[in-house]
Automatic annotation (TrEMBL):
InterPro entries: Aminoacid_DH-like_N_sf (IPR046346), NAD(P)-bd_dom_sf (IPR036291), THF_DH/CycHdrlase (IPR000672), THF_DH/CycHdrlase_cat_dom (IPR020630), THF_DH/CycHdrlase_CS (IPR020867), THF_DH/CycHdrlase_NAD-bd_dom (IPR020631). Residues 6-121 form the Tetrahydrofolate dehydrogenase/cyclohydrolase catalytic domain. Keywords: Amino-acid biosynthesis, Histidine biosynthesis, Hydrolase, Methionine biosynthesis, Multifunctional enzyme, NADP, One-carbon metabolism, Oxidoreductase, Purine biosynthesis. NADP(+) binds at residues 166-168, 232. This is Bifunctional protein FolD. NCBIfam families: PRK14186.1, PRK14188.1. It comes from the Bacteria. Its EC number is 1.5.1.5, 3.5.4.9. GO terms for molecular function: methenyltetrahydrofolate cyclohydrolase activity; methylenetetrahydrofolate dehydrogenase (NADP+) activity. GO terms for biological process: L-histidine biosynthetic process; methionine biosynthetic process; purine nucleotide biosynthetic process; tetrahydrofolate interconversion. Homodimer.
Length: 300
């Protein structure tokens, strides 16, 4: 079997088109211009790229984009003060602090400082709880992107056996909630799971979010499984020249594509969906802040 390639880049492009339509409606029908503030601390090159892309795509869909760059040695109190200032700013409907933050800053303190009404990452305890019990609000961007790709490819997810590899707060845990909501039977596997290949072989849907380059092999998969690869790992690529690197996922794409029914590539799969879903969440929070019902096509 050669798997269907799920094109996350194309899906994200179409999603941004729909988001631009919702922005236009908020502006013309309600006089609201959604605003997203992105905060980056330090100069990590990958984070710089993500934040630049977030700011650019925010402006492209017609929203106001506010970018705040703080030095890597900024005191934690100064970052928290900026978050409080953004909480109080009526032009800002979404706040995102790019992770990871430098070691001297407690990420939990930063997350808890964000007003849950503006928490477009859905990292705050209030929003994690809302996702768990199915109340309206923002949904963690990467899991939301995975869910949209799965629904688009499979239609209904009901009754499917889903195995998530990884139990992070960012991906594994919210992904579990979303798949349960869609009536999947969900297993969350992790680094201590015994007989991991055997567990994964039971799955109709595999979400790999473990952070280990090319760990999931083709012979771990059930024939026809749908594989969503969340991993973004930079590995040496001597074939491209000395010191060069390339991006790979947590799945060994070549062997997995021989067995899977469908698979997301890296790059071009889940990554672009993360940023598109951030914009979707900003529409959700801008709507809720203004007492409007968020568009149902942008959320879980
Ligand atoms: N506050 C947050 N911090 C981080 C999040 C997050 O959702 N919120 N997620 C990741 C990084 N991330 C977004 O911030 C992100 C990662 C990857 C991509 C992406 O488009 N990847 C491309 C490849 C890009 C490349 O060449 O490096 C792809 O997969 O095609 C977008 C966003 C950690 N931090």
């Amino acid at each position: 079997m050669t798997a269907h390639i799920i094109d996350g880049k194309l899906f994200a492009e179409n999603l941004r088109g729909r988001i631009a339509g919702h922005v236009e409606r908020l502006k013309t029908e309600h006089g609201i211009t959604p605003g997203l503030a992105v905060v980056i601390v330090g100069t990590d090159p990958a984070s710089q790229v993500y934040v630049t892309n977030k700011a650019k795509q925010t402006a492209e869909v017609g929203m106001n984009s506010f970018k705040h760059e703080l030095p890597g040695d900024v005191p934690e109190a100064e970052l928290l003060a900026l978050v409080h200032q953004l909480n109080a700013d009526p032009a800002v409907h979404g706040i995102l602090v790019q992770m990871p933050v430098p070691k001297h800053i407690d990420p939990n303190k930063v997350i808890e400082a964000i007003d849950p009404m503006k928490d477009v990452d859905s990292f705050t305890p209030a929003n994690v709880g809302k996702v768990q019990i199915g109340l309206p609000g923002p949904v963690s961007c990467t899991p939301l992107g995975c869910l949209m790709l799965l629904r688009d490819h499979l239609g209904k997810l009901e009754g499917k056996n889903a195995v998530i590899i990884g139990r992070s707060n960012l991906v594994g845990k919210p992904m579990m909630q979303l798949l349960l909501r869609d009536n999947c039977t969900v297993t969350v596997a992790h680094s201590r799971t015994e007989n991991l290949p055997e567990v994964v072989r039971q799955a109709d849907i595999v979400v790999a979010a473990v952070g280990r380059p090319q760990m999931v092999k083709g012979d771990w998969l059930k024939a026809g499984a749908v594989v969503i690869d969340v991993g973004i790992n930079r590995v040496p690529a001597p074939e491209k020249g000395e010191g060069k690197t390339r991006l790979v996922g947590d799945v060994d794409f070549a062997s997995a594509a021989e067995v899977a029914g469908a698979i997301t590539p890296v790059p071009g799969g889940v990554g672009p969906m993360t940023i598109a879903c951030l914009l979707a969440n900003t529409i959700t929070t801008a709507s809720l802040i203004n007492g409007l019902v968020p568009p149902s096509d942008l959320t879980a």
